[in-house]
Design a protein that fits this description.
CATH topology: outer membrane lipoprotein receptor (LolB), chain A
Shape: globular
Strand order of the largest sheet: 7-8-9-10-11-1-2-3-4-5-6-12
Distance between the termini: 35 Å
Number of strands: 12
Helix content: 10-25%
Order of helices and strands: HHEEEEEEHHEEEEEEH
C-alpha cells in the first residue's frame, strides 16, 4: 500500500505553504494562483473551527504483490472540541475502533476484540497528535483537518500544476473543483463555495506505480454538533480488557538530541 495515502498532512500543508509564493512566481504558467489561494483560504477557515463533527467515507486501493489493486473502504466519525477534546470511531469490514481524548487521557478501544489502552495525554490536540505518533506510532484519524496550512511538509514534492476545474456538486453541496499535480501524484479537491470553504471531497492518485492506486475521501460536516463532556471520556464496557500500548523504539541518538535541545 502506498504511504502517500497516509501523508495528507505533508501533501496539503506543502501546497498551502506555496500559496503565498505563487503571485511572485509567474514563470510556471501551469500553476493557477487562484487555485493555490483557494487552498490557503480553506486552511485558514479550518483553523478557525473550535467545535465540529465530520464523517469521512473513504476508499483506497491496496496493491498486491502481483500488481492487482483491491479496493477497501472505511467510515470515520469524528467529533472535536478544540483545544483538548477529541472522539473518533473507525468502522470497516474488519475494524471497529474508538479514539478518545479528554485533555488528560488518551484511549484506544477495539470493539471487536474488546481491548483498550489508556495513557496520560498532553493538554492540547496538537501536542497529542505529535506525541502519539512519535511515541506509539499511532496516526490520529483525519489528522489533516487539524494540520492543513501548517509548515510540516519537508517530505512533500513541489506542485507542478494547479488548475481550477470549475463548479461541481458533492452530496448536493455546490463546490469548486481543483486539480493538482506533483511528482508521482495527482490529486483533486472539491471545496465548498460560500462563507464556509470546507473540503468536501479528495482524490489522490499515485502516478509512479503501474497500478495507479487511488484514495478517495468524501466529507460530511456538522459545525454545530450537540454533545457533553462524557462523549470524550471512556467508560470501559463489561469484560473489556486493558492492555498496554507498545512504544516505538527510539532511533539511535534521539535521546541525546532531545537532551541537547531541552524540553519544549
Amino acid at each position: 500500500m502506498c504511504k502517500r495515502f497516509f501523508c495528507l498532512v505533508a501533501i496539503l500543508s506543502f501546497a498551502l505553504s506555496l500559496s503565498g509564493q505563487v503571485s511572485s512566481d509567474q514563470k510556471n504558467t501551469d500553476i493557477d494562483p487562484a487555485a493555490m489561494a483557494a487552498l490557503d483560504k480553506m486552511g485558514t477557515f479550518l483553523r478557525t473551527l473550535t467545535v465540529f463533527q465530520v464523517k469521512a467515507a473513504e476508499t483506497k486501493d491496496d496493491v498486491w504483490d502481483n500488481g492487482q489493486a483491491i479496493q477497501t473502504s472505511q467510515v470515520i466519525d469524528l467529533l472535536a472540541a478544540r483545544p483538548n477534546r477529541f472522539r473518533a470511531q473507525i468502522k470497516s469490514d474488519d475494524t471497529d475502533a474508538f479514539f478518545l481524548y479528554n485533555g488528560k487521557d488518551f484511549t484506544v478501544y477495539g470493539h471487536l476484540v474488546n481491548y483498550y489502552a489508556t495513557v496520560p495525554a498532553p493538554p492540547t490536540i496538537g501536542e497529542l497528535i505529535e506525541k502519539i505518533d512519535e511515541k506509539y506510532g499511532i496516526d490520529m484519524p483525519l489528522v489533516d483537518l487539524f494540520m492543513w496550512g501548517s509548515a510540516q511538509s519537508s517530505a512533500a514534492q513541489a506542485v507542478t500544476s494547479a488548475i481550477d476545474i470549475g463548479p461541481g456538486s458533492i452530496e448536493g453541496t455546490t463546490c469548486e473543483q481543483y486539480a493538482f499535480r506533483q511528482e508521482g501524484l495527482d490529486w483533486q479537491i472539491w471545496i465548498q463555495l460560500g462563507a464556509y470553504p470546507l473540503p468536501r471531497k479528495l482524490i489522490l492518485t499515485t502516478t509512479d506505480e503501474e497500478a495507479r492506486p487511488r484514495f478517495t475521501q468524501i466529507l460530511t460536516w456538522n459545525l454545530a454538533p450537540s454533545f457533553n463532556d462524557e462523549a470524550f471520556t471512556f467508560d470501559p464496557p463489561k469484560d473489556a480488557q486493558r492492555i498496554a500500548i507498545a512504544e516505538v523504539p527510539a532511533l539511535p541518538g534521539a535521546e541525546k538530541k532531545s537532551e541537547k535541545g531541552g524540553s519544549k
